[in-house]
Amino acid sequence: MRIVLMGPPGAGKGTQATVISQELNIPHISTGEIFRRNVGEGTELGIQAKEYMDKGEYVPDSVVNAMVADRLGQDDAAHGFLLDGYPRTAPQVAELNGILADGGYELDAAVEITADTEEVVQRLLKRAEVEGRADDTEEVIRRRMEVYAAETEPLTRLYADQGVLRQVDGMGSVEEVSGRILAALRD
């Protein structure tokens, strides 16, 4: 399966990505990991990305898209993947569709883990306290939730129009949420 995983901060995306990728025997590919690998290995794309990151600027889509295309072209992703952190914009959705079409594939599902905002805010505040993240204040967390909602809504609409959107309630135990995601992927 070729899957995109979306969800607000604190919804458990990372945890669920690990469980689902193991269950389906497909690689969990996160854009953060792709960036770290390219920058760490000093690849041409990593050098380009680092130039922007060092200035505190967003890495342009052309570089991000190229990194994703390169990663999806690796052998372990030939039979499927779970993509986490990409796409984040409508042009990136179009680019991903093009990358897949070039390989003769299409996306099987875009899974959005939904979560109650108040519960997620409390979860993130607790995590900030435990992990000593002083910059994760309630105001900052709520702003991140607003940005996620504003940026993601157009993507969920696009994926719904493509018939691949699966929205799954992210509240409950890891096992309960994993079960819902796997059931949604079977439908």
Describe the structure.
This protein is of the alpha/beta class and 187 residues long. The chain has one domain (2-186): 3-Layer(aba) Sandwich (Rossmann fold). The protein contains eight helices and five strands. The protein has a five-stranded parallel β-sheet with strand order 2-3-1-4-5, sandwiched between helices. The longest helix has 25 residues, at 138-162. The radius of gyration is 17 Å and the shape is globular. The model has no long low-confidence stretch (mean pLDDT 92).
The low-confidence parts are none
Overall shape: it is globular
C-alpha Rg (nearest Å): 17 Å
Q: What would you say the CATH architecture is?
A: 3-Layer(aba) Sandwich
- Describe the biggest sheet? 5 strands, parallel
Distance between the termini: 13 Å
Structural class: alpha/beta
What is the third-level CATH name, the topology? Rossmann fold
- Strands, count: 5
Q: Going by CATH, what is the homologous superfamily?
A: P-loop containing nucleotide triphosphate hydrolases
Mean pLDDT over the full residue set: 92
Secondary-structure element string: EHEHHHEHEHHEH
What is the number of independent domains? 1
H/I helix tally: 8
